[in-house]
Amino acid sequence: MVMMGCNSGGVKGEGTGGDGRGLNEVVSSARQVFLETFLSFSDLLKGAFGITADTTKEAVGERLGEIGEAVNVAKSKLESLKIVDNYNLIKDKADGVITKMIGILEKLVNGSNKIKEATKDASGKIANADNAGDAVQADTESVKGLVEGISMIYEAIRDAKIDLGGNAVKVIADSKAISKLFNATGNASADGLKAANVALNASSGADILAAIEASRRGVGKSAGQIKDATNAYDIAVATKDDTDAHNDISTKGPVIAAGIALRAMAKSGKLATKAADAPQEGINAVLSRAVSKTVNEMMLNIRKTVDK
C-alpha cells in the first residue's frame, strides 16, 4: 500500500511518452504488486484463531508458520520491484520505504518460522490437563524458540509504528498461590487455579505479548523452581516446587499469564491438576485462554502491519 501515492506530487518527465510513460508503468506495476500481495493472504489473517479441546501445540506453530509463508510471498514481491527495468525512475522516492518494509516483513517471516520450529513434533494438546496430573516442565529449547520468535514479531510490529499498547507489569492482587499449579497433583489447589484466572482476567493479549518480549533477555538461564521465577520464560520452564511464587511475579498478571501461555504452547509443558480442587476443565480453560489471547493478538498486529 505504501506505493500507491508515490507519484502523487508529480514527477518531472511524467506524461504520455519517454520517461513519463516508463514512470507510469512502474508505478502501475507497483500498485498491482501491492494489491495482489496483500489480498492474496488477507483471508489467512481474518478472524480469530479458535483454540478447541483438540488443538495441538504443533497446530498453533503451523498456523503461524502459514502466515509466515504468506508474508514471505509479500516480501519476495516487494523485492521483485527493485529489479524491474524502470525502477530507477522511482528509486529516489520509493527505495527507502520499500527497503524498510522488506526488513519488517523479513522479521515477521523469521519470527513465525521460529515459532513453528519451536513447536515442531509437539503432538500434545494445548488443553492437555487430565483429572489428576503433576506439573511438567516445558522443554527449555522450545520455550526459548517461542520467546525469540514472538519477540521478532513484536519488534517488526513496533518498527511499523503500530501501537502495541501492552503493559507487562500490570498489577493484580497477590497471586503467589499460582505456584500450586507448578507442583505434584497432591499439592494442586483451588487457590492456584484462582490465581491463574485472576492473572488472565486482568491481562489483555497485548499485555501478554509485552511480558513475553520482556523475558527475551533471560532465555539463556537454566530452569529453576517457581519460587525463583522472575519472568515469563522462567515460569514456563519452572520445575516442580512446593513454595510460593517469587515476589517479582506474584502481583504481575501479564507475567503470570505469559508464562502459562508459553508453557501451554511449548513441548511437554503441563500444569498440575487435582480433581476436587484444580480440575482438568478449569486448568484446560486457563491454558486455552492464555494461548488464544496470545496468538490472536499476534495475528491482529501482523494484519495491522501488513495493511499499514
TrEMBL record:
Query: What parts of the sequence cross the membrane?
Result: none
- Name-wise, this protein is Variable large protein
Phylogenetic classification of the source organism: Bacteria, Pseudomonadati, Spirochaetota, Spirochaetia, Spirochaetales
Q: Which GO terms describe its cellular component?
A: cell outer membrane
Pfam families assigned to the protein according to its UniProt record, in alphabetical order: Lipoprotein_2
Q: Which InterPro entries match?
A: Borrelia_lipo
Q: How does it sit in the membrane?
A: Lipid-anchor
Q: Mind listing the UniProt keywords for this protein, alphabetically?
A: Cell outer membrane, Lipoprotein, Membrane, Palmitate, Signal
Query: Is this entry keyworded Transport?
Result: no
The role this protein plays is: The Vlp and Vsp proteins are antigenically distinct proteins, only one vlp or vsp gene is transcriptionally active at any one time. Switching between these genes is a mechanism of host immune response evasion.
Q: Where in the cell is it found?
A: Cell outer membrane
The keyword Lipoprotein belongs to this UniProt entry's keyword annotation: yes
Q: Which organism is it from?
A: Borrelia duttonii CR2A
